[in-house]
């Protein structure tokens, strides 16, 4: 038998078939999907996304607005800001006006109180001037009374001053007045009436010492320019 014949008659080796299963897949690479399948899958996903967007168009807008809200804080409307400024200014003006009114009212009240005190003080001094007279310097005492008087009281006392001086000097009289009480009775725009209680101790030459006498006077005080003077004197029983 020749070599050629021997080679032709030898059977071909059988193909080795790998067993199927998990152990067989370990060394075999997985089949990759075809490009056509990937394209079809991408198209389907895009179509579904477009359908969702068409079905709910407001969802995208809400997401965009939420994103913008996180980045920028809301600003108050200009009209509200102007209103707040106007209200604040009005409150300040009102408080200033109220403070001014209270200040002016307090000033007026203080001035009126000071004026009443002045009326009472002038009446007290007028009563002391009328009841404190010494025969040794009676002229100065009478001059002091006239300097604090005005109106009809000034005219009447000036007319009677000379006879009064003669009587005091003749009896060598000396009197001292002490105020025991004084109070404002009534008041007008430029005048007031004051009740004054005074105790008067009088001594004369050659006469025994007398007990003090209590007198009550209603003295009218008149505002004359920047001064207040005695305008009238009445003895009250």
How does this model look, in words?
- By secondary structure, this protein is an alpha+beta fold.
- The protein has a domain at 109-235: Nuclear Transport Factor 2, Chain: A, CATH 3.10.450.
- Helix content is 56%, strand content 21%.
- The protein has seven helices and five strands; from the N terminus they run αααααβααββββ.
- The protein has a five-stranded antiparallel β-sheet, with helices on both faces.
- A hairpin with a 2-residue loop joins strand 4 and strand 5 (227-235).
- The longest helix has 54 residues, at 78-131.
- The termini are far apart.
| Major β-sheet annotation | 5 strands, antiparallel
Q: In percent, how helical is the residue content?
A: 55-70%
How far apart, in Å, are the first and last alpha carbons?
189 Å
* The CATH H-level homologous superfamily of the domain at 109-235: VirB8 protein
SSE class: alpha+beta
CATH fold category name of the domain at 109-235: Nuclear Transport Factor 2, Chain: A
Bulk shape: rod-shaped
The total of beta strands comes to: 5
Name the features:
single chain; 237 residues; alpha+beta; Nuclear Transport Factor 2, Chain: A; five-stranded antiparallel beta sheet; rod-shaped; transmembrane helix; transmembrane
